[in-house]
């Protein structure tokens, strides 16, 4: 039982760290802050709400698309 709880915690922690590193890798080479401005769509510039910024869960829910304009951001 505790093994599954521990694995879920490690998976969740890893998803959060990976999400933060994704933002850092995208913003730091451009000399932008990783904390401000908040995340936004690259096409319509709509802000990404906190509930759309949950690692993996919101990506799966939205299918990798912007909630406002429906565009898919590809790096």
Task: Provide structural commentary.
43% of the residues lie in helices and 0% in strands. It is flat. It has helices at residues 2-27, 57-62. The chain is built from 2 helices and no strands. With 75 residues, the protein is an all-alpha fold.
Provide a brief overview of the structure.
By secondary structure, this protein is mostly helical. The chain has helices at residues 2-27, 57-62. It is flat, with a radius of gyration of 14 Å.
Q: How would you sum up the major sheet?
A: none
Please give the alpha-carbon distance between the first and last residues.
40 Å
How much of the residues is beta strand, in percent?
A: under 5%
The DSSP helix count reads 2
**Can you tell me the overall shape?**
flat
Low-confidence stretches: none
Q: Taking all residues together, what is the mean pLDDT?
A: 88
- The total count of strands amounts to 0
Global Rg: 14 Å
Structural category: mainly alpha
Amount of helix: 40-55%
SSE string? HH
List keywords for this structure.
0% strand; mainly alpha; 75 residues; 43% helix; flat; 2 helices
Write the SSE topology.
Elements: H1 2-27, H2 57-62
């Amino acid at each position: 039982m505790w093994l599954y709880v521990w694995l879920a915690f490690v998976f969740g922690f890893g998803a959060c760290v990976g999400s933060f590193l994704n933002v850092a890798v995208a913003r730091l080479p451009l000399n932008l802050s990783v904390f401000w401005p908040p995340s936004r769509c690259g096409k319509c510039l709509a802000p990404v709400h906190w509930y759309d910024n949950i690692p993996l869960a919101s990506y799966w829910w939205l299918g990798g698309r912007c909630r406002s304009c429906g565009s898919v951001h590809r790096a």
